[in-house]
Amino acid sequence: MTDPREPVDPRDPDDRPGGLDPDKPRDVPNVPVTPGGPEQPEPGGAELPPGAAVSQVDPRLLMRQEGFAGYWTEFKRRVRGGELGSLPVICGLIVIWIVFQSLNDRFLSAQNLSNLSIQIASTGLIAVGIVWVLLLGEIDLSIGSVSGVSAAVLAVLNINHGWSDGAAIVAAVGVGVGIGLIQGFFFAKIGVPAFVVTLAGLIGWQGLQLYILGSQGTINLRYNSTIHKLTSYYFEYVAVGYGIAGACVLVYAVSRYLQYNRRTKAGLPTIPIQDIAFRTAVLAVIAFAVAYVLNQWYGTPLALVIFLAFVIVGDLILRRTAYGRKMYAVGGGVEAARRAGISVALIRISAFVICSTMAAIGGIFAASRIVSAGQSTGSGDVLTNAIAAAVIGGTSLFGGRGSTYSALLGMLVIGSISSGMDLQSVNSSVKLMITGAVLLAAVVLDSVSRRSQKASGRA
């Protein structure tokens, strides 16, 4: 038997997982371990005696068949094991809304909620991108500067050089892609720590932003242009809002049913079809309630629709594709992923490309909202709010756990706190302190959750 400390030679087929020699023992499984991944069954069940056959029945499913008592037992099991999921942030969001609504009855009004959905879109898009890097257990400190330099490129090409709105948007997004490739290359191929690479990017790309803007400092965009309509357009017809809500529910129901059907045919444990119907019904109530509230004002904002589209598509990629499972695997353990045949460098580079691309898109939405791009675009609390949103929403700073829905939930928390305090005319310094406290609480909860999982053998 080979020494486990001996390095693996990738050129030797016998050293690779699934090599050619059937008699050679292998310590590495053929299937990558994906902590927090979508298809991984949760451990923690009763241990089987040696030689016993593996049961195809998931004990969690037996609990669900017991009705409400079974669900309560399952809930307690997950809490004891540190598997809290999105429950803390959802409960926190409900408490925030109740508190601010009791202080000011305009907080949950259609107008304020509509404005809130537009306000969180630009930073929320950036937060969607940072989720991909956090899944690797890394950080990107340059996202604010990337959004600023992309907005500067957009404004200069569109206004100073007369490019069309569409061409200027494509060029700005291309800047984000290029920056992601550069930073990802230095991190994944050269081996420079992500913190150092992106810290240099934070400084360097901000300097490039100032250079592009030149002596003008601020460039105003045209009103009622395509760029401006990204955050100013509303779907006024009531049917559109309800149609979008119905489409979201349909996508969820179909994806869950396909997963159920696939796992059933493979003889794998899956949740009962009644559970899928119940969850779909809950989502339908929430989606149509949101559409109803937004229709009481100007209608469904285009910015919110685009934001939700990126969240949903990103989650589907992470949880329903081989690429997404590889992303979770690399975040769960780099060496295990490498030995399982995953191109770690390619996954890392792609994560930074996605992150910088989403930062560029967020910068475009930020410029659209204020109808200008200036030296302050992408600065201030953009970086901190984007990272805080992803972490508060449930993405782990330690990698391997999270989803793009974290960006949505986290931005709702941060945006609700900011909106509620604005209605109360609270100083911005207090908002920053409270946001920092919420972020710290989220990280502490994540750390305690990981410790509980290790204690229960689920980490």
Automatic annotation (TrEMBL):
Entry's localization field: Cell membrane
Q: Alphabetically list the UniProt keywords.
A: Cell inner membrane, Cell membrane, Membrane, Sugar transport, Transmembrane, Transmembrane helix, Transport
Q: Where is the composition biased (Low complexity)?
A: 31-52
Entry keyword annotation includes Cell membrane: yes
Q: Does the keyword Membrane apply?
A: yes
Bilayer topology = Multi-pass membrane protein
Q: Where are the transmembrane segments?
A: 84-104, 116-136, 143-161, 167-187, 194-214, 234-255, 276-294, 300-318, 345-370, 382-400, 407-426, 432-449
Biased-composition ranges for Basic and acidic residues? 1-27
The record's region (Disordered) falls at: 1-52
Q: What does this protein do?
A: Part of the binding-protein-dependent transport system for D-xylose. Probably responsible for the translocation of the substrate across the membrane.
What is the protein name given in its UniProt record?
Xylose transport system permease protein XylH
